[in-house]
Amino acid sequence: MKLFVSLGSNIGDKQQNIERAIALIDDKIGSVVKKSSFYTTEPVGFTSDNNFINAAIEVKTDLPIYRILKITQKIERLMGRTQKSFKGVYHDRVIDIDILMYGNKEIHSARLTVPHPRMYERDFVMQPFREITNKK
């Protein structure tokens, strides 16, 4: 199954944070087959002096989607992310991992929506996503 993931970091060694998350995804979820360039972007939805580095990856995996969700959340915690955004309140973070697409599946549950519901509204997601998918 093709899995597309967006990654972002705006605290600490941002590039190293993303590289570490990608390595953990490759180890725990599946083979990373494509990786975008790193993009420096301003925070969206909150004010911070810390810009983000964002990237996207394509992963080949056999894992079910809710197992993938659990692993990505565990990676975030392992890397030091202590709180998730809640009700549109965002804050600085060591790592943010979002599932963008899981093959051609559509999932609408209380835990997960795939494709990611706001991906098309966010240049910081779409620019690296377009790079690895060659989509306009």
Explained architecture:
By secondary structure, the protein is α+β, with helices and mostly antiparallel strands. The chain has 3 helices and 7 strands, in the order βαβββαβββα. The chain has helices at 14-28, 65-78, 123-133; strands spanning 2-9, 31-35, 39-41, 52-60, 96-102, 107-108, 113-114. Strands 1, 2, 3, 4 and 5 form a 5-stranded antiparallel beta sheet that branches. Strands 6-7 form a two-stranded antiparallel ribbon. The longest helix has 15 residues, at 14-28. The radius of gyration is 14 Å and the shape is globular. The two termini are 22 Å apart. The model has no long low-confidence stretch (mean pLDDT 90).
Quick rundown:
This protein has 136 residues and is an alpha+beta fold. It is built from 3 helices and 7 strands; from the N terminus they run βαβββαβββα.
Outline the secondary-structure elements.
Blueprint: E1 2-9, H1 14-28, E2 31-35, E3 39-41, E4 52-60, H2 65-78, E5 96-102, E6 107-108, E7 113-114, H3 123-133
Antiparallel strand pairs: 1-4, 1-5, 2-4, 3-4, 6-7
Mean pLDDT score: 90
Distance between the termini: 22 Å
Query: How many E-type strands?
Result: 7
Number of helices: 3
Radius of gyration: 14 Å
**Strand pairing plus helix content: what structural class?**
alpha+beta
